[in-house]
Records
---
Amino acid sequence: MEIPLKEIAKKVGGKIKGEEEIIIKGVAPIKDAVQGEISFIANKKYIPFLKDTKASAVIVSEDVEEAGITLLQTKDPYLAFAKTLSLFAPKHSHPKGISPKSFVSESAHIGKDVSIYPNVYIGERTKVGDRTIIYPGVYIGSDVVIGKDSLIYPNVTIYHGSILGDRVIVHGGVVIGSDGFGFAPTKEGREKIPQIGIVEIGDDVEIGSNTTIDRATMGATKIGKGVKIDNLVQIAHNVVIGENSVIVAQVGIAGSVTVGKNVILAGQVGVAGHIEIGDNVMVGPKSGVAKSIKAGSIVIGSPPIPRTQYIKSALIFAQLPEIKKMVENLSNELEKLKKELKKS
């Protein structure tokens, strides 16, 4: 594929500084790029690489004025590079229609131009939107709704009653709508609490491989529009996640938690049940969240504390052996002074 740099500039809303007639044949990291390829720099610490890169052009921010190489200046280089990648991304073709080796209930409603691969099961009264692609080995239960232009990768399980919006991407091994973890203690053991709710997933959500989203005990577990969920995430019953939030790998969210809009939960964060995380919160990796967090907070740790305070504490933690030795020496000196005072 060959795309003129001028065309890329129009697509990403950028301005070319340098040679405008370049033809771009591919994309690559700044250190690996060769002639004919375009790269990008979103972090200023990588600007020194501009001197040595063999790329034909580099996407940069508007304030970068480096000479000696053609630049594509943009307001948001990372976003511009993402749009550029989409131009070069391979376009996969999918056979339209329903494979005779799949099972689709007669009461199911299948939209136009769908692709349903072999070994797919689609239950009663389920609705699949136009142009949706369902790969082999997918199980979709009864009364499920899947919107338009969605992509369901192999070996996904979607339990009965689940609702998925338009342009939802579900990666391999995901389970949506399994029972919430609810048991009532009795003298004989633990009585299972029926989980009669559903899962609702908004438009433009992406769910990473082997993530699980439990159905609600009553009502709905809700994943808001534009939410991005990484691999190996556990979302329990009746959790609500607000629009455009990001949930990174190995996060576990216990039941009845409310997560606000534009929240970022970094890797391996654990969230206790029945609390609220406000809008625009950032929680650092491996944090244990046991209490509600106010909107706009940036926290890390177990329990979470403000990031600046955590950094100061971490610096002190590294010095604890020396501090301990210092305290012991001071304690010994104090004991000597006490003994001398008693003698006098």
Note: Helices lie at 5-12, 77-88, 307-318, 320-343.
---
Amino acid sequence: MNHSALERRCATLSKRRSIKKDWQAAWLLKSLRCMDLTTLSSDDTPQRVRRLCAKARQPLRPELIESLGVKELNLRVGAVCVYHAYVKTAVEALKNTGIPVAAVSTGFPHGLNPMPRRIEEIKDSVTAGAEEIDIVITRAYVFAGDWQALYDEISAFRKACGAAHLKTILGTGELGTFRNVAKASLVCMMAGADYIKTSTGKESVNATLPVSLVMIRMIREYLEITGSYVGFKPAGGIRSAKQSLEWLILMKEELGREWLEPQLFRFGASGLLTDIERQLEHFVTGRYSAAHRQPET
């Protein structure tokens, strides 16, 4: 992996593409649709999860939707992501909306629970109604170069998920090198992951464009070899609308139009929606509102 070339490629993205006016608004609406609206705080409550689900059902204020003329799009986020303890709460709050619930599992965020307990946790989340499972890999296997053990672990998680989608969290900020990220990405895809995901959002370094580029190139290589489509999910630290555009540009240029849909691309985000709503309001009114004026999630 050529570190300098990866960083140079990412640094040119926003300079080569400048998205303004109507096109910027359209891309921001795309960001909204590809968002896993998330709450993973130690002080989460059922009430907070219900508020998050209400925001997922109505991500933009009705008057803003009317001004943008996008009522017929039936805008909604890609999924709602919560701890296992709140899966049932979220499923009930999103009933009949078609919005899936994603549960973080396998000893999130460190992934160090005993293997039988991690398998049990996945099965419990699926039984509770989760349609997507975000699991944490054992980073020690990567550091030791024990790729067979990592493959066996992900395969067991894939089997436990059943019909639910499996997203594998690499914890890229802790893997040390781009080479480790690339190898771990390929092993996860070979073992049956539906998405590969950068981070838990709890590491000191989370999603970055260069590490995302490495993972995206592995997705492209895997597609060329196997014909299998695998999704990508950057998570952690993506809080501004401008950042979301950078990732969308990266996906479009590296993988093509297909990867701009929630079936193959998601943002893991908690604060991103607020800034997207502010930017869309500026597009409509020409004025920025304070973040605290936006409805709470």
Note: Residues 209-226 form the longest helix (18 residues).
---
Amino acid sequence: MVLMTTSDLPLKRIARGKVRDVYEVDGDRLLLVATDRVSAYDVVMAEPIPMKGAVLTQTSAWWFRQLEGVVKHHMIAANADAIIAAVPALKPHRAEIAGRAMLCRRGTVFPIECVVRGYLSGSAWREYFKQGTLAGETLPPGLKESGRLDPPIFSPATKAESGHDENITIGRMAEVLGKDVTAELERLTRVVYTKGRDVALKQGIIIADTKFEFGRTESGDILLIDEVMTPDSSRFWPLDGYAPGKPQPSFDKQPLRDWLDVERHAGRWNGDAPAPRLPAEVVDATSKRYLEAYRRLTGAELSV
């Protein structure tokens, strides 16, 4: 498979994120291309992670298929041949888009990340540990790190172009989007997460928390968009060995973060770009972690 850090396709590129490049196909469709770029601590690494883009795209595609009839979504196709049939100009670029591209319905993105937390971890745990709150709202006393939350907590966040997203209250979200839209996005977030959590548990994976994005078409349909319950947008933990009261191992870029932590503590990296060059073993371990997440979740090896 082609290793990609930057895409260059014969379409108008309208956005470039830390991982994804977004192209305009026409007024109704977009092409999302997940590169193999990887970021940690808000810094994009120079070295790509083999198969990462395909894992993110095909994990999302797998979820969109599981969610048929549960929520409307933006995916039209994630198979290279089907994409080329719809957009013939991409035929010479089949090797570049195979596995990593998704043809999508176009919509206006709501400027809020819809975060749902089924377990108390990460920034939510840090705030709770210090203040007993999440986004300033009080939580029950006595909760444990990595403990399950019943019901899950809907915890919206602002979308940051750079740096960290910021947790906000539902009231603040309603000020931005209106009460009706906020209520519908919370409802959809809970429905999708519940479905995903239950499916993943059967596969031996805990989805501790995840974030969704939604958009609205010109006809008014609200669509689930972007990536869905991937190792980048979610905290995946192995069910076997789960023990609340401490951090859990995760199926994501943890090998990369661990190595960078050592570099920072040793004074060899100050946390700013550019990051130090990644050793081959760290790149390989990170790639294997992503592929293992896909295999465990879907029950199949990733082939593109």
Note: The helical segments are 52-66, 80-86, 94-97, 122-131, 170-177, 179-202, 254-265, 280-298.
---
Amino acid sequence: MRIALLLVAALLSACQTSLPALPAWQSPLGLDHPEVGQIVELRTGAVLTPAQLVKQLAGAPRVLVGERHDNPDHHALQLWLLRALAQQRAQGSLLLEMLTPDQQVRVDQVRAAINAGQVPPDMLNALAWQPGWPWWLYGPLVQHALRQPYPLLAANLERREVMQIYTQAPQLEGPASSAQPVREALFKQIRQSHCNLLPESQLPAMLAVQQQRDRRMTEALLAAPEPSLLIAGAFHVRRDLGIPLHLEDLRAADGAKVLILAAVGSVVNAASADYLWYTPALPEQDICAELRP
């Protein structure tokens, strides 16, 4: 009898720790790189298995995942992670930078329709999905989330809010997020991401929009059912520049974990995340070439 009970316990344990199969790589570069697929705990330098990563993230009330928006492997791993975490504990909510509050009613209506067995024939129109976020990349994750019992939540600013901030920036409250080294690093990132072509006079407004986006995503996280998972661009989730600083300013930093997905060869500051998952890379495109005189 004792042996039988031990066997049952072992089988139950195996079921609890089983994970979905990892997705096949889709990006073409770096497939033979020694780091591809590695998961690094940045604090210690330890290389983790996917199961070890999931176990550590499963205990966090908030998980922040940073992506490169156009890398298909990042999207595939996000869907894998969401499914894997749901096998370890009930998911409380999923938040996306790609959704704005004016879409939330649409999202809720689509979830209700799907639960009633009425899948909208035109999902993009039903969600008022913004074309700047390619549906072929985001669609699988969104459609999976819409079929789950937990809510899919908007985390970004609406366009009208962005324009208001751009013309009249509010004062950002909090010593961590408003520290001068943080502002200088973000100024540098904004310059580079705009091909060093922005007039200096526009940088303060651009910085205000960036940081108010981070603050909005922070507030959305704090209001969301836990355990929550937020997906956003890598700069938004960085511990040294983004949402974690706002969590600190709002006295809610405890327990949050940051995972950044990055292509092999990327240089990632050890202070910017808790975990780094290396993926293959896409060919680099010089998006600034056609803008240069």
Note: The domain at 37-281 is CATH 3.40.50.11550 (Rossmann fold).
